[in-house]
Amino acid sequence: MSSAPESAHISSLGKGDGIRQQVLASFPLCDMTEDDLSQNPQFCVLLATLTQHLDRTGLTVPLKTELDKADQKLQSHRRQWLRSEGLHKGLQEMIQDHCVRKHHATIPPDQSMFYETMQRCLLVAQAVRLLDPSCPTSQDKTSILGLKPQQVEELMPSEKNVQRMKQSLPRELEKHLKKNCLSLLSYYQPEWESESDGLKTTKLSHLSSQLEQEKKRTESLKETCKENMVLLQRQTQLYLCELTKCIQLLQSLIMDCRLKIQTDLDRKKLDYFEAKCELVLQKVKTEMVEIQLDTYTVDSISAHRKMREKLDSELKACQAEKQSVELKLASFEILGKEFEALAEEYCKLRQEIETKNWVLKEFTH
Percent of the chain, pLDDT > 70? Predict the structure, then answer.
């Protein structure tokens, strides 16, 4: 039963690019692209369904309503606090201005009494507020110097001075606030400072609307800047994705071209090294021939040839003598160990004869 309404709801959302654009517009803070939604259609349908229950910030409709009510209540309390705080700050500024003027000019007695009364009332009110046990700042604390609010209220000025101060306070406060507003107007538009007070007052009545317009325009520019920032981030992400794809495609093209060209390049390098090696071998042979030609002339070659013939003849004679000696030695070895002893004795006798002949020759000299 529930599938029919759900399908009808999904069909009402749109199809294709329309639903994706709706999702991207409804969730500007999400880091998503149209490609992500096209690759996950069910997730796109889920987000499109959630747009009926969520706002642009991701809050549900009931929660957003409660949040708006709480915000309105907070703004109301904030306005009340700002009103009382602004009034208190204005009174303190008036007292400060009076203290400064008192050191530079003579102040009338009634005006001095007005400011002194107002200052004492503010101090007593502040002290009573600090000593009030119902105040959140004074809970679970001992009384300051053992004082009670009733003891501090006894320091209030006389009722007559207080009433006189209250009668003059709206007029003086209005003058002070008007002065501050004119200063604000001069700060906001410095070129209006030389104009008359009446014209300044007229422009001052429109200052709040101008400031409100400036505030709205600033908030609109901030919102536009935020949207542009989100759009820029999304475009940057898309650009980086496309750039990554281009780099991958370029790398694949480079690899394909490199593999095709590498074989031809290797073959050419091989032919080059073979030719270079052959050239080096020919050069070595040429150098060897030149060295031989420089070393062996015609006369040296004929002399070497004769020397070789003589050495060959001597070698043949030595080889023949060697063979005869080897034959004799073989015949002697046949006789055995007895002949070896006789040969050693014979050698000793020959050495003694040679030694005696040498001694005899030396004596004859």
Answer: 86
Please give the average per-residue pLDDT across 232-254, as a whole number: 89
Place of tokens 């080889």: 319
Half-sphere exposure of 288 (CA within 13 A, CB side): 6
Burial 213-234 (b: 16+ CB within 10 A, else e): eeeeeeeeeeeeeeeeeeeeeb
Write phi, then psi, for 108 (nearest 5 degrees): -60, 150
How many whole angstroms from its chain centre is CA 317? 96
Which 8-state DSSP code applies to residue 137? G
Please report, for residues 114, 177, 261, the alpha-carbon distance to residue 169 in angstroms, rounded to integers and kept in the order given. 8, 12, 97
**Phi then psi dihedrals of residue 172, to 5 deg:** -65, -40
Main-chain dihedrals φ then ψ at residue 296, nearest 5 degrees: -105, 105
Query: Does position 98 have pLDDT exceeding 50, yes or no?
Result: yes
Residue 187: enclosing H or E segment and its boundaries? helix 159-188
Q: How far is CA 171 from CA 166, 168, 178, 207, 249, in A?
A: 10, 6, 10, 22, 80
Q: pTM value?
A: 0.42
Interatomic CA distance for residues 203 and 185, integer angstroms: 8
Which of helix, strand or coil describes residue 54? strand
CA distance linking residue 106 with residue 353, whole number of Å: 162
- The structure tokens listed for 155 are 């320091």
Q: What is the pLDDT of residue 143?
A: 62
Q: Would you state the structure tokens that stand for residue 172, as one six-digit string?
A: 């003086």
Place of tokens 């209006």: 192
Half-sphere exposure of 308 (CA within 13 A, CB side): 6
CB of 163 closer than 8 Å to CB of 156? no
